[in-house]
Structure formats: structure tokens, C-alpha cells
């Protein structure tokens, strides 16, 4: 209901129905009948109404939220039985499919509310309220709460009574048995008295701790004996390292302090703030010295779902293993933090951050990977999504959501220095002209177009060879698809990259061996000599049908500079190609000469239906091949930008507009005279101003969409 002052109220009208109901009508709220409406009913409630509890109400609330946002229930079609099965077995609907403008935090809350598995939902209304408060703070929505707000614990007394009766009966029986045994034993029975000396556990009050006390940087940080155990400072000498003065008041989490039916429960600690030495007592927030300590504490305390980075500048961080549940790492309001990982601290072929859970988000945080190890060492990935699911069946695999937003993700070559906000190297001595503009253009570096022709001949010798790093790596065992026989639905990771700049010698995403996933990249730029997506094949004896082995890649207003878009490489162990659906909308592709945008390297000939490419409003510079299929390293099919797309795998693609010459602002990067890690949003702004008349400026990402320093916000 919507009140005259535009406030929404939820009203259960079930009690207002007439008591005389048609017995054939299954949507009832009456004794000994199915409870609820099948558009909003939880799976366990439909199966057995006696199994319903508070979590079932939370599921129905999530379905109601979904209706309020989209105008339709989660599963609007089908018969009563089909709806019941959909609630239990179908993938969770994504409100973004109908309302792309819904914030990601709200979508995440709705999908957790409507999880088919009750263990993966919010277990109490208090958990939901804590998430809603965090989302409101993130979206800057004033809910009218002050710092002294307390969440009241609600207890269903009837539910407690029903649960306690059988246990009370067992307790009475046990006490009676013990009394009978004691009465039957003779008084002279000789037995050893137990030693009453046992460890006495005492609870002490948390005390403040001064950063810099004993403990190594990155050690586990937590509340033990009322103090922080092993909390240390960031690496010495790193910009933005933790200060040496001040205190860190650490309130003890109180998520489980429930004294009775009418006793209030204080909001549990849900957010850790890294970098603040002192902060006012705020419900749900707690300061901590280091990111490593915050991650370790989040592994121990299940209520912690967010880590805020409240510092500016760069901090050195050791590799992290995130807890096996949802976690967000975000920049605090008005801050621009950067995290630097060093490859020498990562195992060869390893990664800086292991994402072991089903949800993860990082927003407003810049990341750097410094390749400071041997030149022939395999570079690590920045993030790795681990998908093992040991001991879990396919029905237990939850929806997997991973978000990378509003960040600069940079791989720095050995000996390179971190780029500054204006793109020049730290400590470098630019020319006088460059100093005036903050940039080094092609004329100043002496770079000229070869033969004066307007096409760029790549300087292959100047480009590095060997394996490259990756922003995101998806790792799943090759045998995974051999264990999923007769499966209709499988959850795959859904990855969102938005308003970000990815630069350096790296792939945007790597999946070797191949695995289906969903990727949506929007309003972002990728500057690298490497292919954005490096994919492998899958085993030919996989038990899943082909339509479930499909990867969906959607790009909206993306600028790709340097390398190709997709490189799919099948090998002898994984010879079958993934079905690939590619959609590009208003993108700008500026590859080096000779680059293939979408390349399939296969062992045997397959039908063209393993690739579908559609989209409109795209711009291509330099006339690269749109698609090339190779069989045994020999080209088999090729599609050029100017060729007819009729009767090809690109038939649904509106032919992109062609631009022969790249703008002068982009030529140093394409020729190899400027490192990819130096690419900035200002280069895009300059290049857009150099486009000839008639070329749409809306193709590709705008400079204003990319992350900027905190001072410019």
C-alpha cells in the first residue's frame, strides 16, 4: 500500500479473506492447508508448512521486494506446480534484467533473501536490517537513525515452546535415570572424585591498542583477551602507512548477545574500517590497523561483510585469502586508497587475492601488481575465483556475483615506476613541453607513422613475450563437468566490471581450462598488448548439454586499446570450444596492426554456431579482422570489417564504423614507445577531440566515466 504521503507499507491481507474457500484453490491461509501465495512462497513452506520459520517469511519478503522493483513476481509464468518447482530449482531471477538502474547492493540483498537454500538466506531479521542499513549508508539514504539506535530482538514464543517440549521431556527422563542409579548404588561404593581444577574462562573488557605494538605487519588481528592480537602497521616507508600514534578502540562484537525474549540486541559488527586511528562509536563499525588483519578477522567473525579503506595513497599489501562468504572491500567516503602487491611475494602462477566465496565486490580502490621478480617467472593474477565445490552437489552451488567497479587496475613491469594521476612517471624528468602539459605526445618522443601511410606497423621486438598477468582468473577443475549428469541448471560466476581502467601487460580475464561464465563490462577502458579474454576449451566428454556450456560476454561503452578481444585456445586435453555469445554496444576497438578481435584456435572443424556476435554503434580503428577461426594453426574462416556479415556467425552484428588512422594521442601506446601502464583517461579525452568529423563521440568510454583522484571528485 502507498499512503498519501508516499510511504510504502507491507500489509498481509491473508486474514481478511473469507473463511469459506474453494478446496481446489491452493493459495490458502488456513489450518491444515498450504500456507501462502505461490508467487511468494518459500520452497520449504510449499514442501511442508510445518517446516516454515522466520527464514520463510524473509524469503517471501524478498519476493515482495522483487515485485516492488520490477512489477512482477520472481516467477510469473506457469501453473501452480511449475511455480513451486521454480522456487525450489530455477536460478534466482536478477532484477537487473528488468531494471538495470537498481543498485548492485539492493540486488544482492534481494537475491540473498530469495535463496532456495535456507542456510544461505538471512537467518534473522536483524541480519537483514544490518545489511539494509549498510546499503542505505552506501546509497546516502537518510533512514532517520542516530548512533544510539538498537535493534530489538524478536522471538517467537510459540516456536520456542514447540522446540523446547521434546528436549524438556528428554531432560526429565535423563534426570530421573540418574536419580535412580544414585539411589540404587550402595553408600560404600569406592570411586575417584573428579579433579575440580579446570581452566577458568574469564571475559575481560576490550582495551585500546596503540598501532606499532608488538606484532608483525599483516598478522592476524582480532579480539583475544580483550586486546588486538598481533595487529601491526603497514610496510615501513609505504605511502599512506598506518600512523604510529592514537588508539584503536575495538568494541567486542555482540551479534549473539540475546538475554531473553524482550532483551535488546546491539547491532553486530558488520564493517571494519582500515586506516582510522580514532572514530566515534558507531553501531556496526569497528576500526582496525591493517587490511590483512581485517581479512583475518572477517574469516573468524561471520557478521563482518564489509571492509572500508579510510586512507589515501598506496599501501603495500601481502597476498590475501578472502573468507568463504560474501565480502566487500570499498573506499571510504572521500578517500582514494591504492593497494600494491609484489609478484615476488606470490608463488609462481599464483594470485594476489583468492576469492573463495560466492560473492565479492571491490569499489573505488586502485590496485597495482609490481612485477619485481625474475623476468622469466610466470606473472600472477590479481584476483582468482576458486571454484572447487568439494563435497557439494550442483543443487548446492549458489549464485555467484563478483563486482569490480570504479578502480584503476595496473600491472607494472619490472623496474617501472607507478604512474601519477597525470600519466607521467614518478621521478621522471619530462621535457619542458611535456612538463607544461603533463603528457608526452608522439611528436615529442620522436614516434612517427611508418611510411607515412596512416596504418601502424607493430614493433614486435619492443613488445615483451611470454605469459602475461591477469586481472581476473577463473579456476575450476577439468573434471567438474564430468560430475553433473542430467542437469538442467548450473550456476556460473557472473562478473561485472564497470567504470574502471585496466592497464599494463595483462589479460582482463583468463579461464584455462575453459569454463562458462557471464561477464558484463561497461564504461571501462582496457589498455594492453594482450588479448582481453584468454579462454581455454573444455573436455570433449563433458556430461552437460551444449546449451549449458555457454559463455556470455556483454560490453557496453568499452574502449579496447592494443590487443584483441577474445582468444579461445583448445588443446588436446580440452578440445571442445565453449559456446560464446558476444554482445558489443557502442564500443571502440583500437588494436595494433595484424590483430584479430575474436580468434578461435581449434583442433578440428566445428560448426559456426559456437559463436554468436551481435551489437550496434561500434567503432573499429585500423581494419583488424573481426573474427578468425584456425584449425591446427591454419586460418579456416576470416571475416574482415568491410565484408558482408550475411550467413556468418556475425550476422546479428551491425557492421561497425571504420576509422583508418588512430588519433595521435593513442599512437605512442600502439607503437610500443609508451608503456601501457601509463595510459590515462586524459588520453581518451584528447583522442576523442582528434576524431574526424562524422565519427560518433559516443563510441567507447568517456573520460568522465573513469575513476579520478580523490582531489578531483
Detailed description of the structure:
- The protein is of the alpha/beta class.
- The protein has eleven helices and 33 strands.
- The protein has a 19-stranded parallel β-sheet that branches.
- Strand 31 (about 625-630) and strand 32 form a beta hairpin.
- Helix 2 (about 55-70) packs across helix 4.
- It is globular, with a radius of gyration of 29 Å.
- Mean pLDDT is about 75; it is low at about 15-35, about 145-160, about 190-265 and about 420-465.
Which key features would you list for this structure?
713 residues; alpha/beta; 19-stranded parallel β-sheet; 10-stranded mixed β-sheet; 33 strands; 23% strand; globular
Please sum up the structure shown.
By secondary structure, this protein is of the alpha/beta class.
Roughly what is the average pLDDT, rounded to an integer?
Answer: 74
Question: What's the main sheet like?
Answer: 19 strands, parallel
Report the count of strand segments: 33
Total helical elements: 11
Q: Percent of residues in beta strands?
A: 15-25%
Q: What percentage of residues falls in helices of 4 or more residues?
A: 10-25%
Oligomeric state, counting identical vs distinct chains: single chain
> What global shape is seen?
globular
Uncertain segments of ≥5 residues (pLDDT<50)?
13-35, 146-160, 188-263, 420-465
Radius of gyration: 29 Å
Head-to-tail CA distance between termini:
39 Å
Structural class: alpha/beta
Amino acid at each position: 500500500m502507498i499512503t498519501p504521503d508516499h510511504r510504502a507499507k507491507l500489509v498481509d491481507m491473508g486474514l481478511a479473506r473469507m473463511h469459506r474457500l474453494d478446496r481446489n484453490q491452493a493459495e490458502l491461509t488456513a489450518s491444515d492447508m498450504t500456507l501462502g501465495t505461490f508467487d511468494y512462497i518459500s520452497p520449504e513452506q510449499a514442501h511442508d508448512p510445518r517446516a516454515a520459520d522466520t527464514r520463510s517469511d524473509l524469503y517471501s519478503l524478498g519476493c515482495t521486494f522483487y515485485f516492488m522493483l520490477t512489477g512482477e513476481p520472481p516467477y510469473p509464468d506457469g501453473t501452480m506446480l511449475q511455480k513451486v518447482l521454480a522456487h525450489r530449482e530455477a536460478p534466482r531471477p536478477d532484477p537487473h534484467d528488468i531494471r538495470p538502474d537498481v543498485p548492485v547492493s539492493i540486488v544482492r540483498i534481494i537475491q540473498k533473501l530469495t535463496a532456495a537454500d535456507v542456510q544461505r538466506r538471512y537467518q534473522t531479521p536483524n541480519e537483514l536490517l544490518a545489511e539494509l542499513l549498510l546499503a542505505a549508508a552506501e546509497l546516502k539514504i537518510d533512514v532517520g537513525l542516530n548512533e544510539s539506535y538498537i535493534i530489538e530482538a524478536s522471538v517467537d514464543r510459540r516456536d520456542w515452546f514447540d522446540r523446547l517440549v521434546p528436549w524438556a521431556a528428554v531432560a526429565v527422563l535423563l534426570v530421573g535415570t540418574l536419580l535412580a542409579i544414585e539411589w540404587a548404588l550402595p553408600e560404600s561404593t569406592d570411586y575417584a572424585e573428579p579433579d575440580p581444577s579446570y581452566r577458568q574462562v574469564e571475559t575481560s573488557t576490550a582495551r585500546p591498542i596503540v598501532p606499532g605494538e608488538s606484532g608483525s605487519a599483516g598478522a592476524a588481528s582480532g579480539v583475544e583477551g580483550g586486546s588486538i592480537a598481533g595487529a601491526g602497521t603497514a610496510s615501513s616507508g609505504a605511502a599512506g602507512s598506518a600512523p604510529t600514534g592514537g588508539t584503536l578502540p575495538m568494541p567486542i562484537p555482540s551479534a549473539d548477545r540475546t538475554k531473553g525474549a524482550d532483551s535488546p540486541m546491539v547491532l553486530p559488527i558488520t564493517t571494519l574500517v582500515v586506516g582510522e586511528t580514532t572514530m566515534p562509536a558507531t553501531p556496526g563499525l569497528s576500526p582496525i590497523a591493517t587490511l590483512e588483519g581485517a581479512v583475518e578477522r572477517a574469516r573468524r567473525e561471520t557478521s563482518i561483510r564489509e571492509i572500508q579503506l579510510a586512507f589515501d595513497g598506496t599501501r603495500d599489501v601481502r597476498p590475501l585469502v578472502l573468507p568463504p562468504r560474501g565480502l566487500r572491500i570499498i573506499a571510504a567516503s572521500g578517500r582514494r586508497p591504492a593497494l600494491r602487491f609484489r609478484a615476488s611475494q606470490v608463488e609462481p602462477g599464483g594470485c594476489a587475492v583468492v576469492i573463495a566465496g560466492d560473492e565479492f565486490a571491490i569499489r573505488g580502490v586502485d590496485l597495482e601488481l609490481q612485477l619485481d621478480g625474475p623476468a622469466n617467472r610466470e606473472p600472477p593474477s590479481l584476483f582468482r575465483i576458486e571454484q572447487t565445490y568439494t563435497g557439494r552437489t550442483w543443487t548446492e552451488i549458489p549464485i555467484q556475483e563478483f563486482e569490480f567497479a570504479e578502480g584503476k587496475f595496473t600491472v607494472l613491469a619490472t623496474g617501472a615506476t607507478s604512474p601519477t594521476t597525470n600519466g607521467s612517471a614518478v621521478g621522471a624528468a619530462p621535457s619542458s613541453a611535456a612538463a607544461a602539459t603533463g603528457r608526452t605526445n608522439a611528436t615529442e618522443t620522436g614516434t612517427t607513422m611508418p611510411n607515412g601511410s596512416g596504418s601502424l606497423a607493430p614493433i614486435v621486438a619492443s613488445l615483451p613475450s611470454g605469459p602475461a598477468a591477469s586481472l581476473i582468473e577463473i579456476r575450476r577443475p577439468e573434471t567438474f563437468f564430468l560430475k553433473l549428469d542430467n542437469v538442467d541448471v548450473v550456476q556460473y560466476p557472473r562478473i561485472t566490471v564497470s567504470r574502471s581502467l585496466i592497464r599494463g601487460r595483462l589479460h582482463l580475464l583468463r579461464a584455462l581450462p575453459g569454463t562458462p561464465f557471464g561477464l558484463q563490462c561497461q564504461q571501462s577502458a582496457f589498455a594492453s598488448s594482450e588479448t582481453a579474454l584468454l579462454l581455454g576449451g573444455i573436455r570433449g566428454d563433458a556430461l552437460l548439454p551444449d546449451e549449458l556450456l555457454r559463455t556470455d560476454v556483454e560490453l557496453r561503452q568499452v574502449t579496447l586499446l592494443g590487443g584483441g578481444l577474445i582468444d579461445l585456445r583448445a588443446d588436446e586435453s580440452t578440445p571442445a570450444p565453449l559456446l560464446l555469445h558476444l554482445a558489443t554496444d557502442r564500443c571502440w576497438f583500437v588494436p595494433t596492426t595484424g590483430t584479430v578481435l575474436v580468434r578461435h584456435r581449434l583442433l578440428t572443424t566445428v560448426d559456426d554456431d559456437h559463436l554468436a556476435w551481435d551489437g550496434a554503434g561500434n567503432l573499429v580503428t585500423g581494419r583488424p579482422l573481426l573474427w578468425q577461426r584456425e584449425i591446427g594453426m591454419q586460418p579456416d574462416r576470416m571475416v574482415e570489417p568491410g565484408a558482408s556479415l550475411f550467413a556468418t556467425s556475425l550476422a546479428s552484428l551491425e557492421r561497425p564504423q571504420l576509422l583508418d588512422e588512430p588519433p595521435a594521442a593513442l599512437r605512442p601506446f600502439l607503437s610500443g614507445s609508451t608503456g601501457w601502464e601509463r595510459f590515462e583517461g586524459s588520453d581518451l579525452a584528447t583522442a576523442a577531440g582528434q576524431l574526424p568529423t562524422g565519427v560518433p563521440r559516443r563510441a567507447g568510454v568517456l573520460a568522465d566515466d573513469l575513476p579520478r583522484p580523490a582531489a578531483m571528485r
